[in-house]
Amino acid sequence: MISFIGAGPGDPELITIKGRRLIDSADVIIYAGSLVNPGVLEGHKESAAIYNSALMDLDEVIKVMSEAEAEGKKVVRVHTGDPAIYGAHREQMDRLDELGITYEVIPGVSSAFATAAALKAEYTMPSKSQTVIFTRMEGRTPMPEGEKLTDLARHHATMVIFLSIGFMEEMVEQLEAGGYEPTTPVGVVYKASWPDQIILRGTLADIAQKVKDNGIKKTALTVVGDCLGDDYELSKLYDKHFTTEFRKGKE
Ligand code: SAH
C-alpha cells in the first residue's frame, strides 16, 4: 500500500504523527522537492531510496512506485501542505487504480491554515464572511468557466489565493473589477511556518507595492477579505445569552 502524505507547510513539526511514522519506516520516499522542507524527511531509514518528484514526470513517478511495490517495499509519496489542494495526486491515484495498487491518503496542514495562523486570522468572521474560497489566478493552467477572480470576487467571501504571488498587480485589478473596495484588507504570507517567513499586511490599494518592496516572488499566499479587518460581530457560540447543545444561555 502506497501512502500519500501531506507534509504540512514547512515546519517539520507541522506534519501529522501518522505521516511522520510512515516516512520514518518507508523504503522509498518520493517528495515534491520544490516545496517540501527536506527537514520533514529527517528520521528516514538510512537505507531509504529518496526521489525528488520535481525532476520527474508522471510516468517516472508511477514507475518508481510500481517497481518498489512489486518488490514489497513501503513507498511514501510526500506532498506539500495537504495533497488535496493543487497537489496533483488524483492523476497518480488513478494510475495506481489501473495497476491494481492500493493506496491511502494522510492529510496535512495546508499552507492556507499555516497562513491563517501566521496572520492570527479567523477566515470565517460572523457578519463578515462565512465562506472561504481557495483559488488561484489563471496562469499556464486555465481557469474553468465562472471561476475567474472577478467572478469569485463578487461573493465577498474570504479568498485564499495560491500560486499567484508573481501577478499581484493583475490580481488586485481583477479583485477590484469584481467589486472589492480598494480599502479591503489583504494579508500576504511568504513561506508560512518556515524560519524565513515574512508577513505583510495592507489593503488592495497598497499590497502589490509591499510585495514588490519585499522582493517576494514565490511560495506565498494572499488572503483577501473583511475577515482581516477589525469590524465584526461576536459569535453566537460564546454569547452568554445564547443556548447551545452544551450550555444554557443566561437571562
Ligand atoms: N498543497 C499545498 C499547495 C500546493 S500549491 C498546500 O496545501 O499548501 C503551491 C502554492 O502553495 C505556492 O505557490 C504558494 O502559493 C502556496 N504555498 C505552499 N507552501 C507555502 C508556505 N509555506 N507559505 C505560503 N504559501 C505556500
Radius of gyration over C-alpha positions, nearest whole angstrom: 21 Å
Distance between the termini: 57 Å
- CATH architecture verdict of the largest domain: 2-Layer Sandwich
Q: What count of structural domains?
A: 2
Point out poorly predicted stretches: none
The side-by-side strand order for the widest beta sheet comes to: 3-2-4-1-5
Number of E strands: 10
Content-based structural category: alpha/beta
CATH superfamily of the largest domain: Tetrapyrrole methylase, C-terminal domain
Number of helical segments? Answer: 7
Describe the structure.
With 251 residues, this protein is α/β, with parallel strands linked by helices. It has two domains: 2-106, 3-Layer(aba) Sandwich (Cobalt-precorrin-4 Transmethylase, domain 1), CATH 3.40.1010; 111-228, Methyltransferase, Cobalt-precorrin-4 Transmethylase, Domain 2 (2-Layer Sandwich). Helix content is 25%, strand content 20%. The protein is built from seven helices and ten strands. A five-stranded parallel sheet has the order 3-2-4-1-5, with helices on both faces. The chain has a five-stranded mixed sheet with strand order 6-7-10-8-9, with helices on both faces. β8 and β9 (198-203) form a beta hairpin. α2 (58-70) crosses α3. The mean pLDDT is 94. S-adenosyl-L-homocysteine (SAH) binds at residues 9-10, 35, 79-82, 85-87, 110-111, 114-115, 162-163, 189, 191-194, 219-221.
Chain-wise SSE layout:
Blueprint: E1 2-6, H1 17-24, E2 28-31, E3 49-52, H2 58-70, E4 75-79, H3 90-99, E5 103-106, H4 111-119, E6 132-136, H5 149-153, E7 158-162, H6 168-177, E8 185-190, E9 198-203, H7 207-213, E10 220-224
Parallel strand pairs: 1-4, 1-5, 2-3, 2-4, 6-7
Antiparallel strand pairs: 7-10, 8-9, 8-10
Helix pairs in contact: 2-3
